[in-house]
Amino acid sequence: MNKLIALVASALLLVAVGAAQRLRPDADRVYQPLSSTGAIGQDVRTTPYTVRVERAETGRELVLTGFLDKKEKRATKGVWVVVHLTATATQERVQLGTVELQALNGTRYAATDRFSTLDSADLDAGIPRRGSIAFELPPDAVKGAILRITKARYTTIHRLNAALGPGVEVALGLSGAAVPTVTIAQEDS
């Protein structure tokens, strides 16, 4: 009788261990940032900053305005997605960090590095900064794209750049239809 109880207990223990293994989240879920979500026109607050997406637009060509209203046209083989937003540091000087658009299929696209935009600008505590961030996406990735901002970059030496820090997610509500041109002002870093 004792052997039977031991066998049943062992079998139940094995089933419990197997179930625990299946229910354990994968590494991507364990280490992803805790995100605050919001909508266009809504303040999304996190510890390092508050972000408000004003609007998002798409275009086949981008007109970049810079110093003294100098205008440059930038082409892409895909579609430009420009996100206009306001960001404010909450406690100390910080940069937005990793800024991406996530397509419906899960693919992530980084902000363009072909010119300077708000993602590389310093944000000072309590001072709102308006600007734009541009992305180049394939046309089929635009519809349903979500803006993701994670891994704030602190500019003070005593603060570590947190890989597990808070993030921002905003669904952009883009339809996928692109206008001929979209305009963006280049940031003065």
Shape category: elongated
**Which regions have little confidence, pLDDT < 50, spanning 5+ residues?**
none
What Rg, in angstroms, do the CA atoms define?
22 Å
Order of helices and strands: HHEEEEEEEEEEEE
Q: CA-to-CA gap between the ends?
A: 77 Å
CATH architecture: Sandwich
Strand order of the largest sheet: 1-11-9-6-7
Number of domains: 1
Strand content: 35-45%
Annotation, overall tally of beta strands: 12
What's the overall average pLDDT, rounded?
Answer: 85
Structural class given helices, strands, pairing?
mainly beta
Number of helical elements:
2
Q: What do we call the CATH topology?
A: Immunoglobulin-like
The description of the largest β-sheet is: 5 strands, mixed
Helicity range: 10-25%
CATH hierarchy, class? Mainly Beta
Task: Fill in the keyword field for this structure.
5-stranded mixed β-sheet, elongated, 189 residues, 43% strand, single chain, 2 helices, 14% helix, mainly beta, Immunoglobulin-like
Which helices and strands occur, and which strands form pairs?
Layout: H1 2-23, H2 27-30, E1 35-38, E2 43-45, E3 49-65, E4 71-89, E5 94-95, E6 98-102, E7 108-110, E8 129-137, E9 146-150, E10 153-154, E11 167-171, E12 179-185
Parallel strand pairs: 1-11, 3-12
Antiparallel strand pairs: 2-3, 3-4, 4-8, 5-10, 6-7, 6-9, 9-11
Keywords: Signal
Protein name: DUF4352 domain-containing protein
Organism: Nonomuraea endophytica
